[in-house]
TrEMBL record:
GO terms for biological process: gluconeogenesis. It catalyses: L-serine = pyruvate + NH4(+). Keywords: 4Fe-4S, Gluconeogenesis, Iron, Iron-sulfur, Lyase, Metal-binding. Residues 3-59, 67-111 form the Serine dehydratase beta chain domain. This is L-serine ammonia-lyase. It comes from Faecalibacillus intestinalis. Pathway: Carbohydrate biosynthesis; gluconeogenesis.
Length: 403
């Protein structure tokens, strides 16, 4: 598995696979060919169908320069729905043709290219192997992560946590309308005010968590700085839970980075064995994965043992199985923002369930099993429900991509 640096990326919204990934690919290609006179780019599959709303063509042109032409193709490339072809020119001569795939979370893979692929640093390929290793060696999930990441990784976790918290705070202070045809009003600030004015404690706590998730998701939808966790579209869930732990439960930052690392480890297992791409697996791969990660993090905060943390994460993913990705107009707004609020609450509930139910009976479903089920469910989903805006809410609403 890759470094958690490839899972937690600090960047700009609104989409990790449709904005961050194409930008990273374009930057790498421009670096490889600094003297190219022009570029032509073809977008396939989901990138073509929802690229306008996700600003895919805009970010590619901004990165490669004014002499760039971007075309939207009606078909898809075989490896992944988020396919791109870059044609590099020097005058009228083609210097290179590079096929790239934005596979989710801003990660890019290249087909038959000189461009370097991401290094694998973790030797274990699933959670069963990881738990066996940490129990054989008497270490924790957090210790396991530090064993394989570089010496500067702890500092990076603090940087990620600070970026998440800054995003929450920014979102709680901003008002106005989110860019795009939907003209969706930002509500995180008002939701937060409602929360602090609510007398009933249980209602107040849940509203606070929701406001934190909305804050990040609205920042993402506006194209502001966020952290992929594991994607832009699901970037509000984990920060909401961690910020709640920081502000309401008064958990210190030095403990929260451990929970962040644990969340990343579970996200990495999903990414390695299934997918975190909405175009590949539907929203279960984005919100479902984020919910599982946040549930694992909250389980760590509750000081659950390894099997109960696994149980929490398993529930977080299991109860998002089959969730479709049908963004209205191709924007990361409806239903995405609301789903982040629900996902944060569901993550806390999953960890709380694990704490109570786990001592009553052993969970029959392993985390690795539910990851495999999610992968197969994603394969079975009709393409209209995998970030193409051809079905579901997007079809019902009647807006075309980028309208």
């Amino acid at each position: 598995m890759e470094s958690l640096r490839e899972l937690f990326k600090i960047g700009f919204g609104p989409s990790s696979s449709h904005t961050m990934g194409p930008q990273r690919a374009a930057s790498k290609i421009k670096e490889q060919y600094p003297n190219a006179s022009r570029f032509e780019v073809e977008l396939y599959g989901s990138l073509a169908l929802t690229g306008k709303g996700h600003l895919t063509d805009y970010i590619i042109k901004q990165t490669l320069g004014k002499q760039t032409i971007v075309r939207f193709k009606s078909d898809r490339l075989p490896y992944h729905p988020n396919g791109m072809k870059f044609y590099v020119y020097q005058d009228e001569e083609i210097l290179d043709t590079i096929t790239a795939y934005s596979i989710g979370g801003g990660t890019v893979e290249y087909e038959g290219s000189k461009l370097q692929q991401t290094k694998q640093i973790y030797p274990h390929k699933n959670l069963k192997e990881i738990i066996q290793y940490i129990e054989d060696n008497g270490i924790s999930f957090y210790d396991y992560v530090l064993n394989y990441e570089d010496e500067h990784f702890k500092a990076y976790l603090f940087e990620v946590l600070d970026s998440m918290f800054t995003c929450v705070q920014n979102g709680l202070h901003h008002e106005g309308v989110i860019p795009g045809r939907l003209q969706l009003k930002r509500v995180a600030k008002s939701m937060y005010q409602q929360a602090i004015n609510t007398r009933r404690e249980s209602d107040r706590e849940r509203l606070l968590v929701s406001s934190y998730a909305y804050a990040v998701s609205e920042e993402n939808a506006c194209g502001n700085k966020i952290v992929t966790a594991p994607t832009c579209g699901a970037s509000g869930i984990l920060p909401a839970v961690l910020f709640y732990c920081y502000k309401q439960l008064e958990i210190p930052r030095k403990e929260l980075i451990k929970a962040l690392a644990v969340a990343g480890l579970f996200g990495n297992v999903i990414k390695h064995n299934a997918t975190i791409s909405g175009a590949d697996g539907g929203c279960q791969a984005e919100v479902g994965s984020a919910c599982a990660m946040a549930a694992a993090a909250y389980g760590w905060i509750l000081e659950l043992n390894n099997s109960l943390i696994e149980y929490a994460a398993e529930m977080g993913l299991e109860h998002n199985l089959g969730l479709t990705c049908d963004p209205v107009g191709g924007y990361v707004q409806i239903p995405c923002i609301e789903r982040n609020g629900f996902g944060a609450l569901r993550a806390i509930d999953a960890a709380s369930y694990a704490k109570q139910l786990g001592y009553l009976r052993k969970n029959k479903v392993s985390f690795d099993s539910i990851v495999n089920v999610m992968k197969e469910t994603g394969k079975d989903l009709n393409s209209a429900y995998k970030e193409t805006s051809l079905g579901g809410l997007a079809k019902e609403f009647g807006l075309k991509d980028g309208d």
